[in-house]
């Protein structure tokens, strides 16, 4: 009886080790319309769902990853699903910044890199949008110190998401390959200071502005859009609230209007789940600096810290030097009003800025033709901020 029990336990252990578990299979994460080309880091085995070896994949062989299951990647092989350990492959290109990046793509790609590089990244769900889309932060690096960067507070400003996703893509590859980006030693910097990225604060608004499918009735949305069908200009969240007018810093000074495609502050501070998620991230975090990316004007807005003024001023000038963007003066006419950057400065007394990445685009999204120049200007901004924070 003891021998039979021992054999049963041993067989169970062997099967569990060599196969994809039922739980993992049921929790598959599909990459949908965003498969990723990967390359084998070493000779590794491709298995079926029972753990049987199908073939040996040679180092350098390219595959198309279509989904994730547990710690394995899923590919199609001979018209069937096959599995390969995520730790045995590298992605070749995570995103293409010259094209629109959707909320679904952001979610899929962040999950991919977090599982592919678990020792180098940490993915957190920090909240949900009005329509239930997940809001994520991804920490890149092993450094105990942290800086924070976010994007797409405004729906039509989704090119800012492209910037942060390209940073994640580029910085990870440089870290893993031990290469520099410009003058920056990426591995050295991120081993001391991690960067926390929130690539899309407003996924509902972005989806609407990109022409995607939303749950909210179009009749309601059209009424908030001045009866226009032009949703490319939409800035607000899906409730018609401007998320960057939701923070409790001189919120009362903003003229009360009504739900709209832009500039409505809401009934009170932090009523919207997306703004509340960022507030909580700021409150609970120990980020040494903060950059919020917006898209139109090639300007840098900032607020004066009380005890870290010289540090803030140096950081703002450094980002200006890197990007070529104009630094806006801090005056009475330009006093902090209800933006996330203003809130960070108020509660943390640390450097923060709002960076507008492209020439003024009017009531519209920044044209994709601007991408190459935008990326060139911003490629090293995250590394610059993290590198400065090493000495704080």
Describe the structure.
By secondary structure, the protein is an alpha+beta fold. The protein has two domains: 18-92, Roll (SH3 type barrels), CATH 2.30.30.40; 96-392, Aminopeptidase (3-Layer(aba) Sandwich). The chain contains twelve helices and 19 strands. It has helices at 2-18, 22-26, 103-116, 159-177, 186-190, 203-209, 218-224, 273-284, 309-323, 340-348, 371-378, 381-389; strands at residues 29-30, 36-40, 44-47, 53-57, 62-65, 67-69, 72-77, 80-85, 89-91, 121-128, 134-140, 145-151, 180-181, 184-185, 193-198, 287-296, 299-302, 326-327, 352-358. The strands form five sheets. The protein has an eight-stranded mixed sheet with strand order 10-11-15-12-16-19-17-18, with helices on both faces. A four-stranded antiparallel sheet has the order 1-6-7-8. A three-stranded antiparallel sheet has the order 5-2-9, with no helix packed on it. Helix 8 (273-284) runs parallel beside helix 10 and helix 9 (309-323) packs antiparallel against helix 12 (381-389). The relative contact order is 0.12. Residues 1-26 have low confidence and may be disordered.
